[in-house]
Amino acid sequence: MLLQVKVLGSIEVINEDHPLRLAGQGQRAVLGTLALDFGRVVSVGRLAQAIWQNAPPASARTKIQAHVSALRQAVGQAARGGCGPLLTVGSGYALCSDSVRLDLAEFDALAGMGREALALGEPGPASGLFAEALAIWRGPAFADAVSPLLRAAAGPLEERRVLTVEAKAEADLTLGRPEVVIAELSAWLVAMPLRELLRGQVMLALYRLGCRADALSVYREGHRTMIAEVGLEPGPQLRSLHQRLLADDPALLRPGGARSPGLPWATETLPLEEYPRIHRASA
To answer: Are residues 92 and 180 in the same domain?
Structure first.
């Protein structure tokens, strides 16, 4: 059985369903940094930065060797054959992908397959893959780490998570599941009120459920929040959706619908890489 390393939440190591104890932030910083560069060699300098930022002690290399040794003692009997979970390569270290099952790698693989399915016009399989990917998350990435390097890395990982949430909503809207979109996006919109794509997806889902007044209220709330917090009007896509809701555009009720350049999330499949570019305001 592969050793499980988890970083999408608190940093955990699990062997055959039994959690292994990590002693201190130094070990968490080493393991978390190796997980970020899964399968690649991480230099001692990068590990030192993860632990001590820009002020490593003269004994940094020795201390890192001690952390690695302690990790090996904790997980050394966990690997079954293969190359073992923690390798020394030259003057650096790496987690061996043949011996370690990493939740971040699983998330990326499932989300990637979901993107491919969505691009191929298969929203059903895409929604299922996105749901599997999102279920892997247990909380904020590196939740119990104090390493500045890991804390900085957590932000981009959270962005990948939210992009997957938005992509799943895209698939569910295409499938005619507005109730699922409302159930899954409402809390995200409260947490990220400046994210226009989320807001547009919630508005469209409410409209398709026959809650036109609520959909318009969601727009007005977003408009007020954007003006108050960033001093900007909503982007043209969200304003276009608002106008189409006011006009009761019948195309908005069709999950598959004809393509509409003014409303990309409602009517056409986009590569997931495009989502950051299409009217997504972030705090």
So the answer is: no
